[in-house]
Amino acid sequence: MKVLLLNNRYPSPQAPQIASYIKRIAECVEESGAEVSLLVSKRNKTNGIMKLVDAALYCWKLRRYNGYQEHDIIYINHYNLLYDGLKTKIDSMNKVVIHWHGSELRYNKASLKHMNEKMKAGLKSDFLHIAPSNYIKKKIVNDYLVDPDKIFISPSGGVDTDWYQGDKKTLGDTVHLGFASALIREKGVETIIKLIESLSSLEEQTDKKFQLHIIDYGFEKDKYLPQLQSSPSVKVHAPFAGNKIKAFYDKVDLLLFPTHSESLGLVGLEAMACNVPVIGSDVAAIPEYVIPNETGELLKDHDDVAEMRDAIKKCVEQYDKYSPRELVVEKYSRQSVVAGYRQVLYLNPYATGN
Questions:
Q1: Less crowded by CB within 10 Å, the N or C end of the chain?
Q2: Among 300, 297, 291, 301, which residue's Cα sits nearest to residue 279?
Q3: Residue 6 pairs with which residues in a beta bridge?
Q4: What value, to the nearest 5°, has the Cα angle with vertex 296 and ends 303 and 191?
Q5: What torsion do the CA atoms of 179, 183, 188, 190 make, to the nearest 10 degrees?
Q6: In terms of CATH architecture, what is 2-158+333-346?
Q7: d(Cα 52, Cα 50) in Å, to the nearest integer?
Q8: Same fold, 2-158+333-346 and 174-330
Q9: What is the dihedral of CA 43, 44, 46, 49, to 10 degrees?
Q10: How far apart are CA 223 and CA 218, in angstroms?
Q11: Which residues are paired to 131 by β-bridges?
């Protein structure tokens, strides 16, 4: 089976961290037995006019491409960004798989609502859809009226549990907290800053010292990094390429994940695979794998620093009770993703001659 994978970004040697999940998806589809070709952009500009230029150039590339019929399946990522380049080509494609990643479902502005209606009109009943979580699946059904039987859940390439692994940890005199998300408001960095300012009360309650580990990345880092670096309780790490972020999870005892929304949240799953409990927001897809008293704790209000301190205190007091890795191995491993692709691509009408 020949699969053509489309996305407006793809990791490059100069920017290995950009769209790394798309590379994982391509690898998993290939491991399922398919022959995967890429029709992607590796320009990877992140802001300003050049990002708009990149998008326009890639849509032009999609319009010019004439080899769609040579592939059994066209695997489209970020359909909303690619729609204008593909709308005149869809009819020439054999079978179409659309992988939703969550950003496609945010359309508050009038222009985005208009694009949403155009995208909805372009969806055909025989398309297969892939969602990273039950949360996103429900939104696709509600917002686009897609048949739920046409939506397959696959967690964005999954977690390589052969690489991301670790024994259960034992807390020492210093508890190492980790924040692996980008330094942007939507990931909850402002709550992290408030936490740092009140660590002394947490240390009094637990009789522990606390050190926070963060990673120097995110388009708002210039705004937040000076506040973080000013605290002696904060250690800043340079960005990690690919799977090398495992070294970060190996250093921390708890992962803090006060995100405002998340279609899946791979950093949480990667940490859990390394046997690191997660304190995450009770929003979007996070409750699907952060299970109180088992894999971590949930925050009802991601902005409530007092609630976060209480969750940290609870985790410290009952640290031995958590077994986060077991859930990841069972439901979110790369092996389970590959098996899922093998089933959905080969054992349904989308498979041709198999």
A1: C
A2: 297
A3: 39, 76
A4: 20
A5: 110
A6: 3-Layer(aba) Sandwich (3.40)
A7: 5
A8: yes
A9: 30
A10: 10
A11: 153
- Find, among 331, 336, 169, 185, the residue nearest to 255 by Cα: 169
User: Left, alpha or beta for 275 (phi > 0: left; psi -120 to 50: alpha)?
Assistant: left
Q: Which of 91, 101, 176 is nearest to 126 (CA)?
A: 91
What kind of fold does domain 174-330 have according to CATH?
A: Rossmann fold (3.40.50)
CA distance from start to end of the chain: 8
pLDDT in tens, the chain (354 residues): 999 999 999 988 877 778 889 999 999 999 999 999 999 998 877 677 887 888 889 999 999 999 999 999 999 999 988 988 998 898 889 899 999 998 888 755 555 566 667 777 778 888 999 999 999 999 999 988 899 999 999 999 999 999 999 999 999 999 999 999 999 999 999 999 999 999 999 999 999 999 999 999 998 999 999 999 999 999 999 998 778 999 999 999 999 999 999 999 999 999 999 999 999 999 999 999 999 999 999 999 999 999 999 999 999 999 999 999 999 999 999 999 999 999 888 765 544 433
Contact 325, 273 (CB under 8 A): yes
Give this prediction's pTM. Answer: 0.89
DSSP bridge partners of 175: 210
Q: What is the DSSP letter of 185?
A: G
